[in-house]
Amino acid sequence: MTASPPRLIDFQTDPEPLPSHDRPRPDRRVAGNPERTTWTHYSASQGDFDCGIWACEPGAWRIAFPAGKEEFFHVISGRLRISDDAGNAREFGPGDACVIPAGFTGLFEVIEPVRKHFVVLERAAAAS
């Protein structure tokens, strides 16, 4: 039996995946208890690469990316702000893009209900 070739994943024309819902962990919440909704359009078979659409209600929580996790995102609608632990803050709105690098810690704040495309890469951290 011949394996079928890989196919493109088209966010606009492929059936919408079932969403998953969660909220920030209580120990990380800073403001509100926003519901976060994720539609994962593609997940690599190794489980280390995911992409899709993420939406969230207003609220704020602390984020801490482990050494092997990185995220690229592109805002579709709404506004958010990310601040690092030194207090440097950046706001992002429709059309803006950002990379959250491995090891980043700070505050993630949704100012207006937001939707974004996301790509998350998770690799095993290198042994010291």
So, CATH architecture? Sandwich
Choose one word for the global shape.
Answer: globular
Structural class: mainly beta
CATH first level: which class? Mainly Beta
CATH topology title: Jelly Rolls
- Give me the strand/helix succession: EEEEEEEEE
Number of E-type strands: 9
Number of domains: 1
Please give the radius of gyration in angstroms: 16 Å
Residue windows where pLDDT falls under 50 for at least 5 positions: none
N-end to C-end Cα span: 44 Å
Beta-strand content bin = over 45%
Which sheet architecture does the biggest sheet show? 9 strands, antiparallel
Number of helices: 0
Superfamily at the CATH H level?
Jelly Rolls
Helix content: under 10%
- Nearest-integer average pLDDT: 94
Protein name: (S)-ureidoglycine aminohydrolase cupin domain-containing protein
Pfam families: Cupin_3 (PF05899)
Describe the structure in your own words.
This protein has one domain: Jelly Rolls (Sandwich). It has about 130 residues and is mainly beta. The protein is built from no helices and 9 strands.
Structure summarized in a few sentences:
The protein contains no helices and nine strands. The protein has strands at residues 20-22, 29-31, 36-43, 49-56, 59-64, 69-84, 89-92, 97-100, 105-122.
Give the topology, please.
Blueprint: E1 20-22, E2 29-31, E3 36-43, E4 49-56, E5 59-64, E6 69-84, E7 89-92, E8 97-100, E9 105-122
Antiparallel strand pairs: 1-3, 2-5, 3-4, 4-9, 5-9, 6-7, 6-8, 6-9
Pfam families: Cupin_3
Region (Disordered): 1-34
Protein name: (S)-ureidoglycine aminohydrolase cupin domain-containing protein
